[in-house]
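User: Last request for today: this protein with nicotinamide-adenine-dinucleotide, please.
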Amino acid sequence: MKVAVFNTKQYDRRFLSAANAEHGHELIFYEAHLEPNTASLASGCPAVCLFVNDHASAKTLETLAAGGTQLIALRCTGYNNVDLEAAASLGMQVVRVTDYSPYSVAEHAVGLVMMLNRRLYKAYNRVRDDNFSLNGLMGFDLHGKTVGVIGTGKIGQCFAQIMKGFGCQLLGYDVQPNPACLELGMRYADLSNVLAIADVVSLHCPLLPSTYHLINATTIQQMKPGVMVINTSRGGLVDTRAVIEGIKSGQIGFLGIDVYEEEAELFFEDLSDTVIQDDVFQLLQSFSNVVITAHQAFFTQEAVGTIAETTLNSITEFEQGRSLTNAIALPARIPANA
Ligand code: NAD
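Assistant: Here's the final one, the structure of the complex with nicotinamide-adenine-dinucleotide:
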């Protein structure tokens, strides 16, 4: 099947091409993001493959549908960037990669915790500069601290498991508690209680209308002064301006993020020769207790390999008219004459 693959880097092409050896699809790789202006590139392709910062808005989907696209295959877990109602009304199906190494993201979240707590980013640079002073590098024992896990699905569970290994107390918030987390000894509480008690708050829930700006001026005030906040989920979970105020007041003691609300303009590109126009991002970068990585939490060989295999399996299932293992449930279609 002819597949337009948007937003590809060399590593995407390598892993997708290797996985495609078993499937034989005609993969047409584009570096461009999917957006209304680029959607026509997919004309004649029954399937289109997207990544986190492609925007499958209603307008984009209409152009895709007019060009014959019937399947949107997301090579990621989150699907906040697809207008599902529009896809349903155009008769499209949408698949994602529901399950790929949750360890990749959980381990990266733990990496951010360690980097911030022990100031490893400062220590690394200091020693390279022959500065062996310890001033300003003091951390705290994670052992015995309370970790608040917001969203205790696959990634939240792995994160909790690792933090349990450090000897942390586990506190969870989720609309649907996870029995495996209860077995780990996690206690569940409502969001404000988790925020009030946790020394480290790590976000692992999806970005939905109900979770948009979950971390905002009000919820930041509910947190323990000096709290560490980690976000490896989606940028929109956090009101960045409120977080900046929280950092300036000292309410937030540490911030580690792998995702940023306006990341589509920045992440995955080498912009080192340009002047970054996003003042909010630049201000965030300037704080010494903030560590930012550019949406790399998923980026392990295991995860990227599984993403490629799952995506191509979904496309093959679609081509063969089989039921789609990784389909996203779409809203019921509204008849055109309703
Ligand atoms: P999952 O579906 O296994 O778990 C999500 C959990 O969030 C579920 O337990 C669900 O009940 C819970 N949840 C849903 N709505 C909630 C709400 N309103 N409040 C609290 N909890 C709620 O998903 P996962 O595989 O663990 O992935 C979690 C998120 O991580 C994804 O949605 C994605 O945004 C993000 N992610 C980021 C990267 C990265 O590279 N940074 C990679 C993969 C996934």
